[in-house]
Amino acid sequence: MLDIIPIHAFQDNYIWTLHNRQHAAVVDPGDAAPVRAHLDAHRLKLAAILCTHHHGDHVGGVRELAQVYNVPVYGPQLENISCVSHPVAEGDVIAIAELNIRLDVLDIPGHTRGHVAYLGMGAVFCGDTLFGCGCGRLFEGTMAQLHHSLQRLASLPDDTRVYCAHEYTEANIRFALACEPGNAQLKKRQAEARTLRAAGLPTLPSSIALEKATNPFLRCTEQEVIQNAGREAGLELASGNEMTVFTALREWRNRFS
Ligand SMILES: [Zn+2]
Question: Strand 73-76 and strand 45-50: pairing?
Protein backbone atom coordinates (compact mmCIF):
# COMPACT_ATOMS: atom_id res chain seq x y z
CA MET A 1 0.00 0.00 0.00
CA LEU A 2 1.42 3.32 -1.11
CA ASP A 3 0.90 6.47 0.95
CA ILE A 4 1.35 10.00 -0.32
CA ILE A 5 2.13 12.56 2.35
CA PRO A 6 3.35 16.17 2.29
CA ILE A 7 6.67 17.24 3.78
CA HIS A 8 6.42 20.97 4.48
CA ALA A 9 9.14 23.31 3.24
CA PHE A 10 9.62 27.08 3.26
CA GLN A 11 6.47 29.16 3.64
CA ASP A 12 3.95 27.08 1.73
CA ASN A 13 5.73 24.40 -0.35
CA TYR A 14 4.71 20.76 -0.21
CA ILE A 15 7.29 18.11 -1.02
CA TRP A 16 4.96 15.23 -1.87
CA THR A 17 6.41 11.95 -0.66
CA LEU A 18 5.28 8.55 -1.93
CA HIS A 19 6.19 5.68 0.39
CA ASN A 20 5.39 2.09 1.24
CA ARG A 21 6.80 2.23 4.79
CA GLN A 22 10.14 1.04 3.49
CA HIS A 23 11.05 3.07 0.41
CA ALA A 24 10.13 6.58 -0.67
CA ALA A 25 10.19 8.90 -3.64
CA VAL A 26 10.00 12.69 -3.29
CA VAL A 27 8.60 15.23 -5.73
CA ASP A 28 10.20 18.70 -5.90
CA PRO A 29 12.48 18.68 -2.85
CA GLY A 30 13.26 22.39 -2.61
CA ASP A 31 15.01 21.80 0.71
CA ALA A 32 16.95 18.68 1.72
CA ALA A 33 16.77 19.15 5.50
CA PRO A 34 13.06 18.41 6.11
CA VAL A 35 13.25 15.45 3.69
CA ARG A 36 16.25 13.94 5.47
CA ALA A 37 14.59 14.48 8.84
CA HIS A 38 11.40 12.78 7.67
CA LEU A 39 13.20 9.83 6.08
CA ASP A 40 15.29 9.34 9.22
CA ALA A 41 12.31 9.62 11.57
CA HIS A 42 10.30 7.06 9.61
CA ARG A 43 13.23 4.82 8.62
CA LEU A 44 12.50 5.22 4.93
CA LYS A 45 15.03 4.63 2.18
CA LEU A 46 14.94 7.14 -0.64
CA ALA A 47 14.46 5.44 -4.02
CA ALA A 48 13.98 8.36 -6.44
CA ILE A 49 13.73 12.13 -6.79
CA LEU A 50 11.28 13.70 -9.25
CA CYS A 51 11.42 17.33 -10.37
CA THR A 52 8.61 19.14 -12.19
CA HIS A 53 10.57 22.29 -13.08
CA HIS A 54 13.75 24.19 -12.33
CA HIS A 55 12.68 26.81 -9.77
CA GLY A 56 14.86 26.90 -6.67
CA ASP A 57 12.05 26.19 -4.21
CA HIS A 58 11.50 22.89 -6.08
CA VAL A 59 15.06 21.73 -6.75
CA GLY A 60 17.14 23.38 -4.00
CA GLY A 61 17.55 20.11 -2.10
CA VAL A 62 18.21 17.84 -5.06
CA ARG A 63 22.02 17.96 -5.04
CA GLU A 64 22.35 17.10 -1.37
CA LEU A 65 19.73 14.33 -1.49
CA ALA A 66 21.23 12.82 -4.65
CA GLN A 67 24.67 12.79 -3.04
CA VAL A 68 23.56 11.36 0.29
CA TYR A 69 21.23 8.69 -1.09
CA ASN A 70 22.72 8.08 -4.54
CA VAL A 71 19.33 7.68 -6.27
CA PRO A 72 18.04 8.47 -9.76
CA VAL A 73 16.87 12.03 -10.32
CA TYR A 74 14.14 12.60 -12.91
CA GLY A 75 13.57 16.06 -14.34
CA PRO A 76 12.38 17.84 -17.48
CA GLN A 77 14.69 17.36 -20.41
CA LEU A 78 14.12 20.94 -21.58
CA GLU A 79 15.39 22.49 -18.35
CA ASN A 80 18.81 22.76 -16.87
CA ILE A 81 18.62 21.16 -13.44
CA SER A 82 21.91 19.99 -11.98
CA CYS A 83 22.07 16.36 -10.86
CA VAL A 84 19.23 15.16 -13.10
CA SER A 85 20.32 11.66 -14.12
CA HIS A 86 17.18 10.81 -16.12
CA PRO A 87 15.91 13.69 -18.32
CA VAL A 88 12.25 13.07 -19.17
CA ALA A 89 9.59 14.38 -21.54
CA GLU A 90 6.07 13.64 -22.78
CA GLY A 91 5.51 9.95 -23.38
CA ASP A 92 8.21 8.71 -21.04
CA VAL A 93 7.28 6.25 -18.33
CA ILE A 94 9.20 6.14 -15.07
CA ALA A 95 9.32 2.85 -13.21
CA ILE A 96 10.24 2.94 -9.52
CA ALA A 97 10.72 -0.73 -8.71
CA GLU A 98 11.12 -0.22 -4.94
CA LEU A 99 7.61 1.26 -4.82
CA ASN A 100 6.20 -0.96 -7.55
CA ILE A 101 4.85 2.04 -9.47
CA ARG A 102 4.98 3.48 -12.96
CA LEU A 103 4.41 7.15 -13.68
CA ASP A 104 3.67 8.76 -17.03
CA VAL A 105 5.37 12.03 -17.89
CA LEU A 106 3.23 14.85 -19.31
CA ASP A 107 4.65 18.03 -20.83
CA ILE A 108 2.78 20.99 -19.30
CA PRO A 109 4.77 24.11 -20.28
CA GLY A 110 3.77 27.68 -19.44
CA HIS A 111 4.91 28.40 -15.86
CA THR A 112 8.33 27.37 -17.15
CA ARG A 113 9.41 26.28 -20.60
CA GLY A 114 9.89 22.58 -19.82
CA HIS A 115 7.53 22.01 -16.88
CA VAL A 116 6.39 18.37 -16.61
CA ALA A 117 3.79 16.51 -14.54
CA TYR A 118 3.95 12.93 -13.26
CA LEU A 119 0.78 10.86 -13.53
CA GLY A 120 0.01 7.48 -11.99
CA MET A 121 -2.02 5.61 -9.36
CA GLY A 122 -4.90 8.01 -9.98
CA ALA A 123 -2.73 10.94 -8.91
CA VAL A 124 -1.06 13.78 -10.76
CA PHE A 125 1.91 15.76 -9.45
CA CYS A 126 1.59 19.04 -11.30
CA GLY A 127 4.13 21.31 -9.61
CA ASP A 128 3.34 24.99 -10.18
CA THR A 129 1.02 24.62 -13.18
CA LEU A 130 -2.38 23.81 -11.65
CA PHE A 131 -3.06 24.97 -8.08
CA GLY A 132 -6.03 24.45 -5.82
CA CYS A 133 -8.56 26.81 -7.41
CA GLY A 134 -5.87 28.61 -9.43
CA CYS A 135 -2.87 28.25 -11.70
CA GLY A 136 0.80 29.17 -11.76
CA ARG A 137 2.16 32.44 -13.06
CA LEU A 138 3.36 32.60 -16.60
CA PHE A 139 7.15 32.96 -16.47
CA GLU A 140 8.70 31.40 -19.55
CA GLY A 141 6.04 29.94 -21.79
CA THR A 142 3.23 31.55 -23.74
CA MET A 143 -0.31 32.17 -22.55
CA ALA A 144 -1.50 29.62 -25.14
CA GLN A 145 0.89 27.00 -23.76
CA LEU A 146 -0.29 27.55 -20.19
CA HIS A 147 -3.92 27.38 -21.29
CA HIS A 148 -3.28 24.19 -23.23
CA SER A 149 -1.42 22.62 -20.30
CA LEU A 150 -4.32 23.35 -17.95
CA GLN A 151 -6.80 21.94 -20.45
CA ARG A 152 -4.65 18.86 -20.67
CA LEU A 153 -4.79 18.38 -16.90
CA ALA A 154 -8.54 19.08 -16.90
CA SER A 155 -9.01 16.25 -19.40
CA LEU A 156 -7.71 13.65 -16.90
CA PRO A 157 -10.34 11.46 -15.23
CA ASP A 158 -12.55 13.36 -12.75
CA ASP A 159 -11.35 11.37 -9.76
CA THR A 160 -7.65 12.03 -10.43
CA ARG A 161 -6.15 13.43 -7.23
CA VAL A 162 -4.30 16.70 -7.79
CA TYR A 163 -1.08 17.21 -5.85
CA CYS A 164 0.06 20.82 -6.28
CA ALA A 165 3.37 22.07 -4.94
CA HIS A 166 2.04 25.03 -2.92
CA GLU A 167 -0.71 25.73 -0.41
CA TYR A 168 -2.36 28.64 -2.22
CA THR A 169 -5.95 27.44 -2.15
CA GLU A 170 -7.53 29.97 0.21
CA ALA A 171 -6.08 33.01 -1.59
CA ASN A 172 -7.04 31.47 -4.91
CA ILE A 173 -10.62 30.93 -3.72
CA ARG A 174 -10.89 34.64 -2.88
CA PHE A 175 -9.97 35.44 -6.48
CA ALA A 176 -12.27 32.71 -7.82
CA LEU A 177 -15.18 34.24 -5.88
CA ALA A 178 -14.48 37.61 -7.51
CA CYS A 179 -14.71 35.84 -10.88
CA GLU A 180 -17.76 33.78 -10.05
CA PRO A 181 -19.63 34.99 -6.95
CA GLY A 182 -22.65 32.88 -7.86
CA ASN A 183 -20.83 29.52 -7.79
CA ALA A 184 -22.29 27.55 -4.86
CA GLN A 185 -19.64 24.83 -5.03
CA LEU A 186 -16.98 27.48 -4.70
CA LYS A 187 -18.54 28.80 -1.49
CA LYS A 188 -18.66 25.25 -0.17
CA ARG A 189 -15.02 24.78 -1.08
CA GLN A 190 -14.12 27.99 0.75
CA ALA A 191 -15.78 26.75 3.94
CA GLU A 192 -14.02 23.39 3.66
CA ALA A 193 -10.64 24.99 3.00
CA ARG A 194 -11.05 27.27 6.04
CA THR A 195 -11.81 24.30 8.27
CA LEU A 196 -8.81 22.35 7.00
CA ARG A 197 -6.40 25.28 7.33
CA ALA A 198 -7.68 26.15 10.81
CA ALA A 199 -6.82 22.57 11.80
CA GLY A 200 -3.35 22.95 10.25
CA LEU A 201 -4.17 20.52 7.44
CA PRO A 202 -3.45 20.84 3.70
CA THR A 203 -6.32 21.58 1.32
CA LEU A 204 -4.66 19.14 -1.07
CA PRO A 205 -4.91 16.88 -2.87
CA SER A 206 -7.97 18.18 -4.66
CA SER A 207 -9.51 16.39 -7.63
CA ILE A 208 -9.92 17.18 -11.30
CA ALA A 209 -13.70 17.20 -10.76
CA LEU A 210 -13.41 19.80 -7.98
CA GLU A 211 -11.04 21.95 -10.04
CA LYS A 212 -13.36 21.83 -13.05
CA ALA A 213 -16.26 22.90 -10.81
CA THR A 214 -14.47 25.74 -9.00
CA ASN A 215 -11.21 26.81 -10.67
CA PRO A 216 -11.83 29.92 -12.82
CA PHE A 217 -8.89 29.08 -15.11
CA LEU A 218 -10.76 25.91 -16.11
CA ARG A 219 -14.07 27.77 -16.42
CA CYS A 220 -13.35 30.29 -19.19
CA THR A 221 -16.58 29.40 -20.98
CA GLU A 222 -18.84 30.19 -18.00
CA GLN A 223 -20.93 33.31 -18.55
CA GLU A 224 -20.27 34.81 -15.12
CA VAL A 225 -16.50 34.32 -15.51
CA ILE A 226 -16.53 35.88 -18.98
CA GLN A 227 -18.51 38.92 -17.79
CA ASN A 228 -16.34 39.61 -14.74
CA ALA A 229 -13.06 39.04 -16.60
CA GLY A 230 -14.30 41.40 -19.33
CA ARG A 231 -15.31 44.10 -16.85
CA GLU A 232 -11.88 43.94 -15.18
CA ALA A 233 -10.07 44.06 -18.51
CA GLY A 234 -12.30 46.83 -19.84
CA LEU A 235 -13.14 44.61 -22.80
CA GLU A 236 -16.31 43.30 -24.30
CA LEU A 237 -15.55 39.58 -24.07
CA ALA A 238 -17.62 37.05 -25.91
CA SER A 239 -17.99 33.37 -25.20
CA GLY A 240 -16.18 31.38 -27.84
CA ASN A 241 -12.96 33.30 -27.37
CA GLU A 242 -11.58 31.24 -24.57
CA MET A 243 -7.96 32.34 -24.94
CA THR A 244 -8.89 36.02 -24.54
CA VAL A 245 -10.92 35.21 -21.44
CA PHE A 246 -8.08 33.08 -20.04
CA THR A 247 -5.53 35.85 -20.69
CA ALA A 248 -7.76 38.46 -19.04
CA LEU A 249 -8.16 36.19 -16.01
CA ARG A 250 -4.44 35.49 -15.64
CA GLU A 251 -3.63 39.22 -15.89
CA TRP A 252 -6.37 40.12 -13.41
CA ARG A 253 -5.01 37.49 -10.99
CA ASN A 254 -1.54 39.09 -11.20
CA ARG A 255 -2.87 42.36 -9.77
CA PHE A 256 -5.52 40.87 -7.46
CA SER A 257 -4.84 40.91 -3.74
ZN1 LIG B 1 7.75 27.51 -9.97
Answer: parallel
- Measure 55 CA to ligand 1 centroid, in angstroms: 5
Judge whether 144 lies within some domain. Answer: yes
Does residue 219 lie in a domain region? no
CATH of the domain at 54: 3.60.15.10
Q: How many domains does the chain have?
A: 1
Q: What is the pLDDT of residues 53-62, one digit of tens each?
A: 999 999 999 9
> Which run of H or of E encompasses 103?
strand 101-107
Examine residue 255 and state whether it is found in any structural domain, yes or no: no
Those residues whose C-beta lies under 8 Å from the C-beta of residue 53, and which sit 6 or more positions away, are 76, 79, 111, 112, 114, 115, 116, 127, 128
Half-sphere exposure of 195 (CA within 13 A, CB side): 6
List the catalytic residues: 53, 55, 57-58, 111, 128, 166
| 127-172 pLDDT, tens digit each | 999 999 999 999 999 999 999 999 999 999 999 999 999 999 999 9
- CA 109 / ligand 1 centre spacing (Å): 11
Are residues 70 and 115 in contact, defined by beta-carbon separation less than 8 angstroms? no
Range of the domain at 68: 3-168+202-210
AA letter at 123? A
Residue 237 lies in a domain: no
- Determine the distance separating the centroid of ligand 1 and the alpha carbon of 182, expressed in angstroms: 31
DSSP H or E segment with residue 126: strand 123-127
CA of 234 to the centre of ligand 1 (A): 30
